Protein: Flagellar protein FlbD
Amino acid sequence: MVREGWAVPIMARPFILINLTRLNGKGFSLNALYIEKVESFPDTTITLTNSNKYVVLETREEVSRKTAQFYNQIHILSNPHLRGDGHEE
Structure:
């Protein structure tokens, strides 16, 4: 139980990060809000907004799917204009 006014620890909010796998097989978690681009060289390379790069085993499509799930969980795409939907009133 969380007391009013207390912050919820990050570990209690598992949806904050997406889980990925480095080329050496070790798993890690990444905050998808900082992803700037995902490329295949052929290895999948994720570039963050701070220019850090991560090479992962997951395909570009898998990273995109996990990122979209993350956005849905935090309701970042609940605004129709951010989703790219037409004009909604």
Q: What stands out?
A: The chain has one domain: 13-77. Confidence is low (pLDDT under 50) at residues 1-12. Residues 36 and 48 are 5 Å apart (CA to CA).
